[in-house]
Structures are given as C-alpha cells and as structure tokens.
Amino acid sequence: MGEVLATIKIMPESPDIDLAKIKENVEKSIPQGTELHKIEEEPIAFGLVALNVMVIVDDAEGGTEKVEENLSKLEDISSIEVIDVRRLM
Prior knowledge:
Elements: E1 3-12, H1 19-29, E2 35-45, E3 48-58, H2 65-72, E4 77-87
Antiparallel strand pairs: 1-3, 1-4, 2-3
C-alpha cells in the first residue's frame, strides 16, 4: 500500500487568533502513523490567515479521518477541510 500527501485547510475563528499557538496544537494532535510534512500560511482577507496542513498518510480508505477528527477538536478553529490529496511516488 502506498502513501498520499493530504492538504487540510484550517480556518481560525478570527484574525486575532495566535497562529503560532494553533500550529503548536496541530503538531501535538497529529496521530501516530501520520507524518506532518509542513504547515503553510495562506492569507485570506481582512487579516484572516488560514493554515494549510500537509500530512502524509497511508493510501487507504479513511486515511485522513483520524487527522481530521483530531484537528476539529482544537480550540479557536472555525472549520477544517481536506482540499487536496496526491499520491506519493
């Protein structure tokens, strides 16, 4: 079985949220068997910045579900969405 790189967009509740704290919490919430590849900031509008969290997971049904579940429990998060999944070669 292969691996995929999944990109999950995290929207904070407001522009006033401390992104460094969210990044720290994201790193702590990555489940075992999942590799955190990187976190990128994406400016949205009016000072709001989303985080694109890239994780490497097994290419199996429901591969990102545990990551999504953990991220949705974080404080100061408005929404999360898997925006891209690519197979690793």
